């Protein structure tokens, strides 16, 4: 029963999630550039979180609901993404300290910034 409910929700919202994912995927690339091929990894955490947050905002915005109601309905996604980000950053530090492998490109956090942005 629940699987059918989630399936119908996804069928209804997938276009909005795709738009949110593309926005969240390309904004860091535009702002910070591509220091290595690893930054083009398609399933970055920020892209996924952007798909949920931006896609949900677009979906509820298309339903013409009041802004206060949209805000409260989106809070569960915001909370979920904050927990996911904190777990990911803790896992990043753990993997980096144990093995020395840097998973930063796969998360979507830029290692370096362009020199001209902050002058």
How are the SSEs placed, and which strands pair?
Layout: H1 2-32, H2 45-62, H3 67-99, H4 104-107
What is the structure about, briefly put?
The chain is an all-alpha fold and 119 residues long.
Explained architecture:
The protein has about 120 residues and is mostly helical. It has one domain. Helix content is about 70%, strand content about 0%. It is built from four helices and no strands. Helix 1 crosses helix 2 and helix 2 runs antiparallel to helix 3. The radius of gyration is 17 Å and the shape is globular. Keywords: Membrane, Transmembrane, Transmembrane helix.
End-to-end separation: 56 Å
Q: Shape, please?
A: globular
Sheet/helix structural class: mainly alpha
Question: Which percent band covers the strand fraction?
Answer: under 5%
Low-confidence stretches: 113-119
Percent of residues in helices: over 70%
Search tags:
membrane; transmembrane helix; 119 residues; 4 helices; globular; transmembrane
